[in-house]
Every structure is written in structure tokens, then in C-alpha cells.
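User: Protein folding is very new to me. Would you mind checking the protein record under this note? It all follows right here:
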Amino acid sequence: MSHPSHEALKRFLSGDEATPGDGDVARHLLPDCAVCSEVVLSWWANAGRADAGAAGGTGAAQDEARYDELFVRMLSEVKRLEAVVVAERREAARLLPRLLQQPLERQLILVGNSRQYGTAAVCERLLEASYAQRHDDPSKSEALAQVAVAASSRLDPVRYGDALVHDLKGRCWTYLANARRVLGDFTGAKAALATAWSLLADGTGSPLDEAFWWEVETSLRSARQEPVESARCVGRAIALYRRIGDRHLLGRALILQGMVWGYAEDFCREIVLVRIGLQLMDPDRDARVALSGWHNLCWALHHVGEERQALAALARARPVYLRLGPRSLLLRFQWLEGTIAASLHRDEQAEGCLREAREGFIQLGVAIEAAEVSLDLASLLCRQGRTAEVRRLAVEMIAIFESMGIREEALAAFILLRQAAERDRVTEALLQQLGSRLREPKARG
């Protein structure tokens, strides 16, 4: 078998835009070629300083020298503050539980008026808590990031040095931007990122802080449907993580890069990048990213018609979902499994998964997801000629929506489905039309 050259593999995986020959590389990599996967994995996993310099010429060599200087400077700063931070962390563990019991307004007042909260350890713990809540409770995530920003304003430049203070302030504003992005406040996220960048520019030049800034910028541009800029931004993050040599963070960024290509409907490239990212990252360090990676990998395989690969990936992902996933994600796992099983005409398996997912979403009060799963179930029943059951399903969902006060589009969709079932006129085309109506306000991912 003829394998793509190393150069072709690198161009395919790290390019900001599609190039001639990408299709051949994609078709070769899609079945998960073991030889090429090993080549690509070793390339990503090794922080190749010499490789970067050789590939990029004078500009890359200058970047290498700049980052070498930054690393030396950062190491000296870390050693100087190591003992201080250990003591600060003990104090932060004592202070924060009492602080976070207060309303947000009170928290901001307390932090703004007391120097005891103005430490690097307090900022660090608040940011960790903010990041952990970004999906389960985005509003709380934003509030924690706001408190971190307030705490960073109290940092003592004499104690830490001006450059590190700017690093910490910039990091806090980056996390605030990320929380606002998840909430859908794109204007606020953009403003926070601009503030963060201006602060980081006066800092130590920390590649970790810069790389995470590029990750958030990538996600924001993706949410604003700017695929070209998204690909460019995530490429900057990946280059920095490769130089740092952190496999986990590199894997996380590669999963993000895969999602960027998925938004552009280049599912083959998404599949390859997410596969590699999942191999590199540690799921215990960021369970939600790992689960998101597995989910997107399976959906992408489904999109390109690789249903058996998708089911195999689901089987590998199942232990991760069961060990790390909250119930809402486990229900999405069942939904995805049912969708893929239906594509393979494994009707009994598909129906069981879809019914369980539907009931779970109803119990959680997540009505739109319950509606979407119900339409997938209706499609399966329709294919089997079980029109009476489709009608009962529609009647039941109408009652549920009316009790929950759900939006008019969802209610109208199931009224139309009930009427079509009563006339024995339920078709795949109608179900697809109703599904599109439900999903219109939602973005992929």
C-alpha cells in the first residue's frame, strides 16, 4: 500500500486551508491507517524544536530563540515564587469557601476591599472553578471569572513583579471571555479578549497563557461562523503547545482544530485530528473535552457513512462516558448510539437507545433534546410502518410541551406530526422538515 509522504501528512493536518491532494490523503487516513497514524502521532507528540526551525526558515528560528529566552525567564520566576505560592494555596483553601457562600455583588465588594484575596493562589483557584463550571453552569462560570478579575486587580507588583501580575490579569480576563462565549455573549467575550491581549503583551510572554488565549479566540470565531480565521487561530495554539511539549494540551487543541474543520463540513479532516487529539490528551484532566471529542468523532464518522467505525468508536468511548460523564452527556451518548444503529438498520437496538434517551431528557426537563430524539424515534417507527405509534408519540409530546411552556416552534412541529399521522401521511421528508424547524436556533457542537 502506498502511504502519503510525511510532508503531505503535515500539510493536510496543520494547514489553515484545503490544498490540492488533500482528498487523497483524507481517503487514505479515514480507515485509520496504523502506519500513518504512528507517523502523525509521533510528529505531534514530540515538541520538535529543530523540526520547527527547519520547516519555517529564518522566521521560525527567530521564534525559537524568542521562546527559549521566555522559558529561561519563566523558570527563574517560578523558582523565585515557588515557596510563596505553596503558602498562598493553603490560605486560599481557607478563604474561598466562605467567600463563595456570599452573593456575587458581596463577593466583588469583599475582594475589592481586602488585600488578603489579592494573591496568585486565589486567582488560580477561582479560574479552576470557573473552567470546571463552564458547561454545567455557564452563569456561575462567568461569576467566578469576574471575581478572579477583581482579585487580580489586588495583586502586589512588589511581591510578584510587574510582568507576572500582567500575566495573571490577562489570564483572568481570558477565562472571563471564555465564560461569556459559552453564555452566547460574543460582544462581551470579544471585549474581554482584547483586554486580556493587552495585558499579556506586557507580561512575561508566557506561551501557556498565549496558547489558551488563541484557543478561546478560536472558539469565539467558530461561534461567529468565521472558519478561515478559526483555523488560523487554533494553528497558533497548536504551535505553542508543541513547543511547550504538553501532550494533554496539544491533544485538547487538536480536538478543537478538528471541530473547526467539522464546522466547515470537512469531516474527514475532523476525524483524523480528533483521533490524534484523543490519543494525546488525558481524559481525567478535562473530562468534558474528552467526551466532546469522542462525541464529535462519532458524529463525523456517521456523516461520512462510516457507521461501523462510528459504533466501534462508541464502544471505546463508553467507559469514558460511564466514568466521567454527567447524566445529560450519557443521554446524548444513548441518542447518538441509537442514531447510528438506525443507520445500520439495527432497529431493535436503535429503538431501545432512542426511547431511553427520550425518557431521560423528559425527566431532566430538557424539552428540545427530548423533541429531537422523539423525531428520530418517529422516523424509525415510520420506516417500520408503525403510524399509530407515531401518532401516540406526537400526542404525548404535545402534552409534555404544554405542561413545560416550551417554545411555539416545537409545539407546532408535533401538532403537524400528529395531524399527518392521523391522515397516515407521515414521511421521511416531513420528519426532516420538522427536525430542521426544531434545530434552526441551535449551533453545531
